[in-house]
Structure formats: C-alpha cells, structure tokens
From TrEMBL, chain B:
Belongs to the binding-protein-dependent transport system permease family. CysTW subfamily. The chain crosses the membrane at residues 12-39, 77-101, 113-136, 165-186, 207-229, 265-286. GO terms for cellular component: plasma membrane. It is a multi-pass membrane protein. It is found in: Cell membrane. This is ABC transporter permease. One of its GO terms (biological process) is transmembrane transport. Keywords: Cell membrane, Membrane, Transmembrane, Transmembrane helix, Transport.
Length: 362, 299, 276
C-alpha cells in the first residue's frame, strides 16, 4: 500500500475561448497527496485550483495525463464510481430532501439498509455538531448549519479522500475562523486526507499540512506553510502569500544589486543564477539596529496604525516603494518618524530569502 | 383635483371598460349556463323555468323516471374522456420531457432557436395540424401507402377512427403546452445538485430518479394540468380523427347544443367538464405549497 | 466508460432531433403533397402541379371543371374575409382593453387586486367548449343575432387575458426610474406617459396585438358555437370541409394558412426577442 492516496501525473486540461484559441486550466500538473494529510490548493481565481479539484472528483476529464486514487487508475472512471466525495462551494444540498435524507444519500445509493443508515446519519450529524436535526429542511438552516450538513453528507460514506471547494467563502468572518479549527479537528478525527481549495492565504497557512500554490495552471510551489511563506520558490508565491518587498537584480558576492542601485545583503545560498530576486517581508524590517545589520533609508509616505503593529509605507531615494511592519511597542520611534518623515530600516541578512529569477520570460 | 382623486379617476378609466366587458360577457354567460344546467329542457329546445335535477341525474344515476331508465352511457363517455385525456397527458409527457431536458442544456443561441421552433406550431390553426393526421392515418393515407409500397403489410391498417388516433392527434396539438413548463423547470435546475448526487455515488439513472425528476416535477405537473383540461373537453379531435365511432364528452356537448337541442343537459355536461377543471386546478394549488412558486407562463 | 456517457448524450440529442422531426415532418408533408397532381388519392404521388392553389384562388384549371369547386371558392373567400375582419376587430378591442388592464393592475392599488389578477387567468384556463356554449346560451337569451358581432365579442373574452399577460410581462420589466427622471425634468403625468412609458411599452403592446390576431384567426371552437348560420370563418370552413370529405383543395388552403401563420408568428416572435 503506497503512501499516496492521490497521484496526478501530467494532468493537462484546456478549454476553448470565444476568441478561438484555447486556454490551459491545467498544464501538466504532477501532484501527490499523502494519506491523512490536509493539503490546500491555493491561488487566485482562474489559476486552475477548482479545475484540479474537479479533475480529482471526476467532473472534468483530462486531455493528457492520469489520476490514481489509492493506487488505481481512475482517469476514465466516472465521478459516481470514484471513492472521493466533495463539499461544494454552495453546499448543493438537495432542497427536496430533509437533512437526514441529504446526509444519508450516499448510503441510500449504496444500498445500506435503513436502520443502519439512520444510525450512521445520527452519528455523522453529531460529529459535525448538528445533533437531532434530521427532519429539518435545508432552507430552514443557517449558512453555517448548511455547510455542516454538506460536510456530514460527504464524510458519511467514509471516502478515501474529501475534496472541499472553498467551503468557507460564504461564511462571515467569525464563523469562518471557528470552522477552520473544526475542519482541522475533523480531519484528524476521521484520519482521511482533505484537499482544500481556497484563495485566502491565511486559511491556507493556518489549516494545512502542505500548501500547493497554483498560478496559470501550474503548481508554483508545494510545501509546508512555513516553507511556502519563508522560502517562496517564485516571485508569484512571494507576493501571493503574505506581503513582500522584492528586489530584483544580479548577484555580486553576498549582495544583490538592483538596477536602481540598491544593494541588499543576503547570506543565503542561491542557485547558480546570477539573476536573483531578494525578498524581505515587511515584518523583517526593524527600526532598531542589532549587530551591524544593514539598512535601507526611506522617505515615509504613510504611517498606518494596525493595532498590534504599525505599517510604514514609503519609498527609497530612487522611488522604489517599500512596506515595513513594526511592532506597536516601537511607539517612540514612530513618533520621531512621523515628525521627520524619514526612516532607517534594518534587516538581518541571514533571513533574506533569494529567489532565482527565471531566465526566459513566461 | 387632488392627486388622490385623479388617481382614482385614472384607475377607473383603465379598469372599468375591461371589467364591465368581462363581467357581461364572461361571468354572466357562465352563470347563466350554471343556472341552465338545473332547468328542465323545453319540448322544442330552450328551457322551462323549473328546477330539474335530472340533467345531472341522467349522468350520475337518478334519471327522470318519466322519460328513461338510467343509461350509464353518459358516465361511460365521461370516463372514456378522462381516460383519453389522461393517456394524452402521459404520452405528451413522455414525448416532451427528454426533448425539453436536452434543449434546456443547449447553449443560449440554440436554446432560443429551439424555443422558437416549439412556439411556432402553437400559432397555427388547430384544424390544420389535425388535418395532417387525417391524411397520414387514413386507409388511403400516407402511412398506409408507404407500408403497402414497402410490402410490410397486405391490407391497410385501421388507424384512424380509433382511440389511438385521437390520442396521437391530441398529443400532436398539445406538445407545446407541455414542453414549455418542463423546459422552464429544467432550466431552473441547479446543476451543482446533479454533480453532488453523482459525487455521492449515484449513477446517471439514480441521479435522474432521485434528484432531477423530483426537482422538475413542478413543471411536469403544470404541463399536465394545461394539457388535461383542454383535452378533456375537446370535441374537434374526436370528431375529425375519431369519426362517429368514438364519442367523447366534447362531442356529446356539441350534439346536445346543435343537434339534440337539449341545452340544459348540455349545460350539465359542460358543468362536468368545469368540475374536472376545478379539481385539476385544486390539485395544482395543493402541490404549490410543496413546490414554492411557479413562474407564470408568458408566451 | 466514456463511450457509454457519450452514447447517452448522443442518444438524447438524437431523440431531440426526432422530436422536432415529429412536429414538423407532418407539416412538411402536407406542403409537399399540396403539389400532388393526383385528384383522387391525395397521398399517392402522381406528379407536380400548382393547380390546387390556382383552383382555390379562383382560376379555372385542367384538373377539374366541376362547378361545385367554383362555389366553394366564393365561400372560401367569404370565410377569409370574415376571419380577417373579426381578427382585426378583436385585436383592436382586446389590445386596448388588455393593455388598460395591465397598466391598471401593475401601477395602481385597489381592493381585491391580487384576486382580480388571478381571475384574469380564468378565460384562458376555461375549456373552449364551456366558454363557447356559455356564450351561445347568453346571446340567445338576450336575443342577439348570431353573427360577426357576437363572434367578435366572444373572442375578446379570452383575448383580453392573452394581451394582459404579454403587456404585464413587459410592464414588469420596465424601468420606473426613467419615469421619475421625466417627472423630475418637468413633465406632467400625461406627457410622461406619452413620451416615456408608451414608447417603452409599445413592443409589449404590439406583441400582445400580434398574439391576439393570430389566436383570433385560428380560433375554431368558440367561434363554432357563436357564429350562427350566416358567418363562416376560415377554420370553420376547413372543419366543415373535413366533415364533408377531404378534397385536395383543402391541402392547398391548409398550406396557405400555415404559411400565413408562420410568417406572422415569426415576425411576432422576432420582435419579442429583439425587445429583450
């Protein structure tokens, strides 16, 4: 029995557009999902994450490549025969059936006798916190409750894999945060893999074991949340996940020299490319020097008070825009900065991550 | 003049002519007909002003002992009409549903074109559309001609002047009536539900039976009602395609009015048709509660 | 597996084509056979001719010199004339009354409005035959002579409902803020109605009128009961001919009626689709 519950090899899929040509939703994607893993597909709209999800569940056919679920090639298997269940973005609860019938639908289809069905429906509903609501109709439930029914309905048949298509996007903020924790707990309890699609990077970072960042039909990076955040593989990942200050230039020893003459020091090893982009996250800047740290001088355009921190928006002498995030405890320096409209930002060269700039244009 | 009373005047101008017209020429005639159904038939046509329950009695079982024994033929005709109308509904449904389903899933341009094609026959005369089937189903009609030419049969088939011919004719006429409500229902269907059903393990057939059909049922019921009611009272189709052999409620009513000149009895029969219509509408309204609202059909 | 799916979808598409064939093939057939030169057996092809059309239109043809046919041409022309006169009259009346009703229901509040609105559906739902005999009884009871006028009145009872529905749909989709803008710019109610509401409403009114016209031309059952002995309309004429025995001229007449209906209906539907 392999470690991987899902394997995609060279998954490729395109669609015709009115202008005549085709756009590629999936470009030769290779992906492996491990057992008992919470994997998030993260990306902007149109990046292919939903297409990828639908390819796994079977609603979209692949032009090229194949899909294996639990070792079996399911590329040509229709969705109702795949051991995968989906929680749809708008829940897709059957309006003409009760909550209980909705939840037990998969069991009914599989021919499970009604007594056992009732028992398992009750268990599933209790598991998602909806005990006793079997006889209600979907339209009588709140959004959060409907979402839980969708969850219960999808997990009751113990699928090998659960797919979730932006399930939290329709919920309000507080509910969303509560559901994140619940989903994570549920995944642990059930012990099955969750593949979760979202465009919200905070969700991806807080919930996942691994994150796959997608753009334009390709996986730009696949790694743990920390790896994706601290060491983005491409500038896209760097800007999509978290805020960033990017310095594109060429390597000269342990410095990166940009075109407008800024030198960024970095002690990180880089690829053999001479062309690299240095990344400094706003929170990596500090107003206080420590141990000979290098610095950048900026003219401050705006100081934004965010509560637990201050956001400094400014630009270098050469006009390059920068963002820095400093803790609120630095109130005194902030006062001086607001008066002088200038700031000196220190950073630690050891934590300046380098991204190899691709040689050929995309 | 104040704004309020001017509004009233405007409303009056707009509303009154049509309302008066409808009361005079719709409500009143129906009321008169209802009254007539309880009157005694006059000797030479027309009616006597006397309460006479036997118009209904002849149908339902308590005939006027002075004139006749109870002849169940009227009930038989009624049931035959109901049967044929019901079969018409069933056949129209079977014919229309797959096509309406398919059309609802076509891209926009094709959809509109197909709707246009469906609506077009609706605007042609009933009699022309029926005429076609006479030509097709007759002993010397096209179907028999072709079958004989191909030597598939020895003698011409007996197709016209049967219950079947009537049903074929009525189905042909009422297809647009059934198609549009079903189409509207399928169009409103949330396809995510179909995907959800498949995702949970139901194949195409189970998904259809458990999800698609129940959710399109409102359209089907709507279509069934607007086919059943005219089918029940139809007299043209049985006359043209059924000949003298197959008598339906509509023919009976027509006879009473034009040939037999027994207007009270004819009115009673018409009341029967109206009663069936009200029952059908009642069922429709009852199921409305479960369905929610249904879009009004604007043709 | 994919083959099974494509087969399924393919057979549904095929069925739909057959379905439309079922609807239109018979009509196509009578068009074809209206050119059939066989005077005895209409559905056995013996050659192409336009004689039946010429016959119907009043010209002498080789096919038959029987005087009976001439007579029927006069009757036919009378029927056509009656149908057109009736249709024009009913369209005018029903359009005016139906539009007035639509505006009243849509724009004003009054006691029993929703009830009334539902009641307006009654003439359309009522089986033809019931309405027909009710009108017959009524007209006889008040001593009216059955003729053109009674037919016009009788048809209007349900045509008003049709117009009402079409115009209502149009009203529902209209933008009220345009009228507010008009009032804001100084126009009184009547001017606003004339210059803003009516032009917008026109497509709906025309659509309703067209609908009323066609339904009136095609009406058989109700007209049948209240037309009396003097007046025949086109559908009744054909119905009577069918009863007496099928002659090839019926075919030609039917095709001409079909063509007329199709052209008018296409125009109507075309305009409606453009207004959306």
């Amino acid at each position: 029995m392999s470690d991987q519950i899902v394997t995609l090899e060279n998954a490729t899929r395109s669609f015709p557009v009115p202008e005549g040509h085709r756009i590629y939703a999936l470009r030769g994607i290779d992906l492996e999902v491990s057992r008992n893993e919470f994997l998030t597909l993260l990306g902007p709209s149109g990046c292919g994450k939903t297409t990828l999800l639908q390819a796994i569940s079977g609603f979209i056919d692949l032009e090229k490549g194949r899909i294996l679920i639990d070792g079996k090639d399911v590329t040509d298997v229709p969705p109702h025969r795949r051991p995968v269940n989906t929680v749809f973005q708008n829940y897709a609860l059957f309006p003409h059936m009760s909550v209980g019938d909705n939840t037990g639908y998969a069991l009914e289809i599989a021919g499970v006798p009604s007594a056992e069905r009732r028992k398992r429906v009750a268990e599933a509903l209790e598991m998602v916190g909806l005990k006793g609501l079997e006889n209600r109709r979907p339209r009588q439930l709140s959004g959060g409750q409907q979402q839980r029914v969708a969850l219960a309905r999808a997990i009751i048949a113990r699928p090998k894999l659960l797919l979730l298509d932006e399930p939290l996007s329709a919920l309000d903020k507080n509910l969303r945060e509560a559901m994140r924790i619940e989903l994570k707990t549920l995944q642990h309890e059930l012990g099955i893999s969750f593949v979760f699609v979202t465009h919200d990077q905070e969700e991806a970072l807080t919930m996942s074991d691994r994150v796959a960042v997608l753009n334009a039909g390709q996986i730009q990076q696949l790694g743990t949340p920390r790896a994706v955040y601290d060491e983005p593989a491409t500038t896209f990942v760097a800007t999509f996940v978290g805020a960033s200050n990017l310095f594109e230039g060429s390597r000269d020893g342990n410095r990166v020299i940009t075109q407008d003459g800024i030198a960024i020091q970095s002690n990180r090893p880089a690829a053999t490319n001479a062309a690299v982009t240095a990344l400094i996250r706003p929170e990596q800047f500090s107003l206080v020097a420590a141990n000979d740290q290098p610095s950048l001088d900026i003219d401050v355009d705006q100081v934004v008070f965010v509560g637990s921190s201050f956001e400094l928006l400014g630009h270098t002498a050469g006009g390059r825009k920068l963002t820095a995030m400093v803790p609120a405890s630095g109130r005194q320096q902030i006062g001086a900065i607001e008066a002088s409209r200038k700031a000196r930002l220190y950073y630690d060269p050891a934590s300046v991550h380098l991204i190899a700039t691709p040689e050929a244009a995309e | 003049m104040s704004a309020r009373s001017r509004q009233r005047l405007e409303l009056g101008v707009l509303l009154t002519p049509a309302t008066l017209f409808l009361i005079a020429f719709f409500v009143v005639p129906l009321v008169i007909m209802m009254v007539m159904s309880f009157l005694m038939p006059g000797l030479y046509g027309g009616a006597e002003w006397e309460f006479y329950p036997h118009n209904f009695g002849r149908i339902l079982g308590f005939a006027d002992p002075m004139f006749e024994e109870f002849d169940p033929v009227y009930l038989a005709i009624f049931w035959r009409s109901v049967r044929i109308a019901a079969l018409t509904v069933l056949c129209t449904f079977l014919v229309c549903y797959p096509a309406a389903f398919q059309v609802a899933r076509l891209p926009e341009r094709w959809k509109n074109f197909c709707l246009f094609l469906i609506a077009l026959p609706f605007f042609t005369s009933l009699i022309v559309r029926l005429f076609v089937w006479v030509l097709l189903l007759r002993q010397t009609g096209l179907i028999n001609e072709v079958l004989l030419d191909l030597h598939l049969i020895d003698r011409p088939l007996d197709m016209i002047y049967t219950d079947g011919a009537i049903i074929v004719g009525m189905v042909y006429i009422y297809v647009p009536f059934m198609f549009l409500p079903i189409y509207a229902s399928v169009e409103k269907l949330d396809w995510a539900l179909v995907r959800a059903s498949q995702d949970l393990g139901a194949g195409p057939v189970r998904t259809f039976l458990r999800v698609i059909f129940p959710l399109t049922l409102p359209g089907v019921i709507g279509g069934a009602i607007i086919v059943f009611i005219p089918a029940l009272g139809n007299f043209v189709v049985p006359e043209v395609l059924g000949g003298a052999k197959v008598l339906m409620l509509g023919n009976l009513i027509e006879q009473q009015f034009l040939a037999a000149r027994n207007w009270p009895f004819g009115s009673a029969l018409a009341m029967l048709v109206m009663a069936a219509m009200l029952v059908a509408l009642f069922i429709y309204v009852l199921t409305e509660g479960r369905r929610g609202s249904d879009p009004a059909l604007g043709l | 597996m994919r083959i099974a799916r494509t087969l399924g979808r393919g057979s549904l598409a095929l069925y739909t084509i057959i379905f439309f064939g079922f609807i239109y093939l018979p009509l196509a057939l009578i068009v074809v056979y209206s050119f059939n030169a066989n005077p005895i057996n209409m559905m056995t092809w013996s050659g192409f001719t336009t004689d039946w059309y010429l016959q119907v239109l009043g010209f002498k043809t080789k096919i038959s010199e029987n005087a009976l046919y001439l007579e029927s041409t006069d009757q036919l022309l009378a029927a056509v004339r009656n149908s057109l006169v009736i249709a024009a009259s009913t369209t005018a009346i029903a359009t005016v009354l139906g539009t007035a009703l639509a505006i009243a229901i849509h724009r004003y509040y009054f006691f029993g409005k929703s009830f009334y609105r539902v009641l307006l559906f009654a003439p359309m739902l009522m089986p033809d035959i019931v309405l027909g005999i009710a009108l017959l009884i009524f007209f006889v009871a008040i001593g009216a002579h059955l003729g053109l006028v009674t037919i016009i009145i009788g048809q209007c009872t349900f045509l008003i409902s049709y117009v009402f529905i079409v115009v209502s749909a149009r009203l529902a989709g209209m933008d009220r803020t345009l009228e507010n803008a008009s009032a804001d710019l100084g126009a009184n109610e009547w001017t606003t109605f004339r210059k803003v509401v009516l032009p917008q409403l026109m497509p709906g009114v025309l659509g309703g009128a067209l609908l009323a016209f066609i339904i009136s031309m095609d009406d058989l059952v109700i007209t049948y009961f209240i037309s009396g002995v003097d007046i025949t309309t086109l559908p009744i004429f054909i119905f009577a001919m069918l009863r007496r025995g099928i002659k090839p001229e019926i075919n030609a007449i039917a095709v001409m009626m079909l063509t007329f209906s199709f052209v008018v209906a296409s125009l109507g539907l075309y305009f409606r689709s453009r207004q959306k």
